[in-house]
Amino acid sequence: MRSFMLFMKENLSVGLLLFALFLGAGNIIFPPLLGQQAGENIAVAMLGFLATGVGLPLLAIVAVAKAGGDLQVLANRVNPVFGVMFTSIVYLAIGPFFAMPRTGSVSYEIGIAPLLPEGFTHHSVSLFITSVLFFAFILYLSLNPSKLVDRIGKILTPALLIVILLLAIKSFITPMGQAQQAVGSYVISPFAEGFVQGYLTMDVLGALVFGIVILQALKDKGMTNTKQQINTTIFAGVIAAIGLAFVYISLSYIGNTSVESIGTFDNGGSIIAQSVKVLFGHFGSIILAIIILLACISTAVGLLTANAQYFHRLLPKIPYKVFLYIFTFFSLAITNVGLTKITNASLPVLLVIYPLAIVLMLLSLLDHFFKGGAIVYISALIPTFFVSLYDGFKEVAITLPFYERMLKAFPFYEQNLGWLIPASIGAMIGYIIYLSKRP
């Protein structure tokens, strides 16, 4: 019994670590916006959001665990060159290029700026000072990745959960109002809109990246058995999925009931900021600052550690700590261009690579049916890229009429899910080719 309790305690700490790595600023600011805009269709919209924000990341954790915690192992099934290129792009996108700077920028704009005196005009200076302190602390936590489980899984995550739990309980006991009418795409296709909004969390990409962090943490704790590593990682994925579902549902409910009290906003950060003031009065901004800072710190540490570990393995002559310093300073610089510019720059890249990551992950879970046949992966990913690339073009106002007319023929194109049918057909064609070539 004692050994079982010890096993559960250690595995739970790994699960809490994974949950904390997932739960960044984006995971907190997007659900309230969905809640406001989905209105009376919140239940259906949330199902779509949970599919991409919880369900697919859990499947991605399983896929990466079976691949030894390595995204590149999955991507190499397509082609070794593709494996290096795609993996590097994913790591950089959710690391120093976009997601890490976003954690620093959100920490300031939602966690720190509301606490500054009214009329404060030197925001660029305070942003710089805040970001320097923020990334210095992130660097400190990342210098010794063997202590990640103790520092985050056993300390930061429980504190984060307690604060979110207080916010959720208060919102359920004293709701701010009733759900309003749905707006925009949530009126006609709430599930599809919620599904696409789940992209913004980057959770699937995070799941593919964080596998290497979890694997290294397990090795540092003396767990060398491969089967045990896989089982523990999957268990951690389940814990993280439960935690994320709780956070998303709670925060979307806050947004859904907030309109009568605070009005409507076009970003979730403002919604949650105003909501906590209504729910907690003068202490609202302090509570929000704690939530944002804890969430951003844990995610930034995971992203920085994962990136440094991956690129050190890719370029072993460059020490792990050198990559830590490079990515930290790079993220610090980008943070100071501001949250809006970071978000706008990330969307085109995200629209291109996210469908590719989903298709790669789903096919890897079915890999035993075609024994790693590269033709299946290639046949599915080419049409996926064909569609998702244009989604990226549209985001930067590049329009190609002939290209667009072809894509409009695909089902779900208007819901930004036009890649689903081409990817499925491509996979089936690839499987038929695989079967025809089998001895």
From TrEMBL:
Its main location: membrane. Keywords: Amino-acid transport, Cell membrane, Membrane, Transmembrane, Transmembrane helix, Transport. It is found in: Cell membrane. It is a multi-pass membrane protein. Pfam families: Branch_AA_trans. It comes from the Bacteria. Component of the transport system for branched-chain amino acids. Belongs to the branched chain amino acid transporter family. This is Branched-chain amino acid transport system carrier protein.
